[in-house]
Amino acid sequence: MTADFLFVSNDKYVKYLGICTFSVMYNMCPAVERVRLFVMDCGITEENKVRLRNQASGFDNAEIIFYNIERNLKQIVPKVPNNWNRAIYGRLFLTEILQQYDIKRLIYLDCDLLMDRPVTELLTLPLEGKCLAGVSDGESMHRKTALGIPPESPYINSGVLVIDTARWVELDVSSKVIDYINRFPEKMIYPDQDAINYLMHDEIKLLEPQYNMLLMLCERDIPIILQHSEDYIYNEEQTVKALYHGSIYHYAGKDMWSFYGITPVHTILFKKYRRMCDWKNEKRKFGSIKNFLLWGLITIKRLLIGELCLTRRKMNENLPGQSSLA
User: Fold this and answer.
1) Which end of the chain has less Cβ packing within 10 Å, N or C?
2) Which helix (H) or strand (E) is 34 found in, with range?
3) What is the predicted pLDDT for the residue at 216?
4) Could you tell me the pTM of the whole model?
5) Which CATH class is domain 2-318?
6) Torsion angle, CA of 319/276/91/233, rounded to 10 degrees?
7) Rounded to whole angstroms, what are the CA distances from 147 to 76, 100, 136, 188, 193?
């Protein structure tokens, strides 16, 4: 079985791509015959491409393939009010890769996340005729209202997408999403995510939160997670498993290399994969004196609860397999 993954990065985010792809190979290479990492290149230097290739060469059955899309990004000219890096649109050009490679199931991953368990079940997950699968964003009712998405429809976080490539091509998703972003920039807050959810809301299958455990949820206690949002759709069992026995952890909104704001579980994972990947010597930073002081307070909290989180996580190591998919 071949596992195909899609990433997008420029040189600014290459260290995140480095640690992310290492975590994917570390977990997936022992579980499948072949792992292909397709990287939408939005300006990665040759030096860093060599580093990424060398890192992949440490796994016998892994291959990293770069596809330059800097020219493609000119197709998107939105005046979106947020200062998003243009690389976020890279995933929308996956159709060009599909024209060159035989890929039936593609898993897109943001590069600011870490995989901690193999996700082989996603390679054969029945999508029931739908184009995409993803995890509910959790605090999405306001986005559904603003975009005109029916309240009963899902709104997923686009950081992890399981894609039926044939259906994607059939529906011409890339062209439709790009056109929507260009025509309605005033509606966008999370441009590609908003557009995908608006246009594809009836083509989405929901996954359990263990496949995209967002850091902003991990910052809260379990009871608060379950109650903090009127449209948080997951139960306590699913949430606890996602936090302490998850497959993919997403650092959305936080810098992995920052000392500030990372939860104990995310800290444990970052340290685990950082010391093994080729970017292990990349310096961490505080950013500001305020962050330094806040980091000090969080460190005290970690000393009090960090071991508890680690213990609970280790206790769950003996849980059987992956939980059933939603």
Assistant:
1) N
2) strand 34-41
3) 62
4) 0.86
5) alpha beta
6) 30
7) 19, 34, 16, 8, 11
